[in-house]
Design a protein that fits this description.
By secondary structure, this protein is an all-alpha fold. Helix content is 55%, strand content 3%. The chain is built from 7 helices and 2 strands; from the N terminus they run H-H-H-H-E-E-H-H-H. The mean pLDDT is 75. The protein has helices at residues 5-16, 23-26, 28-38, 44-64, 79-100, 117-121, 144-152, and strands at 69-70, 76-77. It has 2 domains: 5-100, no CATH class; 117-152, no CATH class.
Length: 153
């Protein structure tokens, strides 16, 4: 049975463990919208992983502003363990999302014609007054054509 988007969304706070004030649950629609907007057309399992990454970012922001403390007795609260766990989980989820994403490449592909010998000998546009080292007429050296002119002249 395939899960719906709402089922995936509602499973995120359960998996990550929400804060006492419901930070993830209160922002769940925004988290899902951010993941969906950035990856339009991605399958639901990939969106689920990306939304979990966004939720982890939200939790990391909350935990990084808090402090660790301890007392002279046995009481010791260290948030660095929770932060390290979430950062490790984020790394794992990022690698899983990369593996599951479809391999489509989106972008403009421009077709350019190859440079022919005739184009080098008879350029279609006038040459600039300043030598361009990348121009194929110089064969890698902008001074090569100048040396040939000096020897002839």
């Amino acid at each position: 049975m395939a899960l719906t988007a709402d089922q995936y969304k509602n499973f995120i706070p359960t998996q990550l463990g929400d804060t006492k004030d419901g930070l993830i649950a209160n922002n769940l629609d925004m988290i899902w919208a951010v993941a969906e907007d950035a990856n339009a057309g991605a399958p639901l399992p990939v969106l689920f992983l990306l939304a979990k990454i966004e939720a982890i970012e939200l939790l990391l922001g909350r935990y990084k502003e808090q402090v660790s403390f301890g007392s002279s007795g046995d009481l010791n609260v260290s948030l660095t363990d929770r932060i390290k766990y979430l950062e490790g989980l984020r790394t794992t989820l990022c690698s899983q999302a990369r593996k599951r994403r479809p391999g489509a490449v989106i972008g403009l592909i421009t077709q350019t014609a190859p440079i022919m010998a005739n184009d080098i000998l008879n350029p279609p546009t006038p040459r600039p007054a300043i030598a361009d080292a990348n121009d194929p007429i110089y064969g890698g050296s902008p001074y090569q054509a100048q040396r040939a002119r000096i020897k002839r002249g």
